[in-house]
Amino acid sequence: MRTRVVQTLFAYYKDGDKTPLTAKKELLKSFADTYDLYVLLLDFVNELTLYAEQQIQQAEQRAKVTHQSYVANRRFANNRLAQVVFNNHQIRNHIANQQLSWDAGMSAVSAVYKQLLEAPFYQEYMEAAECDYEADKRIWRKIFTELMIDNEAVTSALEEMEVVLDRQNWTVDADLMMSYVVKTLKRLDEVNGADQDILPMFDKEEELGFAKDLLRYALEDKPKYEALIDSHLRGWDAQRVAYMDRIILQVALAEICHFDEIALEVSLNEYIELGKEYSGDKSYMFINGVLTEILRDMKREGTLTKALVVK
User: Fold this and answer.
1) Per-position DSSP letters for 207-249, written without gaps between them
2) Cα(238)–Cα(118) distance, rounded to whole angstroms?
3) Residue 172: CA atoms inside 13 Å, Cβ hemisphere, count?
4) In the chain, which segments carry CATH 1.10.940.10?
5) CATH architecture of the region 221-301
6) How many Cβ atoms from other residues are within 10 Å of residue 258's Cβ?
7) What is the pTM of this model?
8) Which of 163, 185, 199, 275 sits between 20 and 30 A of 223, alpha carbons compared?
């Protein structure tokens, strides 16, 4: 939630023609785009399985033409978890309704398949004397955790698909969404088949409300937060403070000032981590230092109602 608000504000301020309503719409679209990526990565199971079957059929055809003996091992192509994914109503409906497709990303499918053929865990799976549904699930967890994450071919394909499908942040969100795919695959059982639920876009409806309110407060109270930030830049040149650092501080102050139910330490830790991930090498120390000074002054002035623990 926080990451999306920060990214939305960054784009909003960079484009002077945008309005708060536009920012809200872009925030909502960013959530929808990320969920599309999650479902599309789930459907990679189907795409890779179909590709494997196509390779077998081509090998069979070549063997027939050249009069050579060829006995196909279809264990992976007939993977039962893949059948569950293919038949899942939620996945199929979402893919159809959002017009999602791997057509522009088939280079990733072929690249991952080649890597899979060389993976020791694949050889073990294909040569095992017996194979149950748990083994079918296990190999897919390994594919996503050992082959897909930080895969250059997958990243390149997602970049192409972002353009073709008009989506955003797919390369940024890919590894996180793969972790949710793995979590989903662990949950899918063979008995319930097509009617099983995949993960929802939000665990709780309140999460969306939090993101929208956080964006609104950050926009509405920007002058106040900017003044607070500028008055606490002791030893720092205000003109040289990274643009992203300012936005992270602005959103952090919006959360601290308006969401009493969120512990102060939680807010501080979240925005320090955002600084580590999205800004300069030492930005997290700058963000931590400025926020700590602001909160100390707010506590002395009686404008901070939460307990402040200074480490």
Assistant:
1) HHHHHHHHHHHHHHTHHHHHHHHHHT-TTS-GGGS-HHHHHHH
2) 54
3) 11
4) 221-301
5) Orthogonal Bundle (1.10)
6) 15
7) 0.87
8) 275
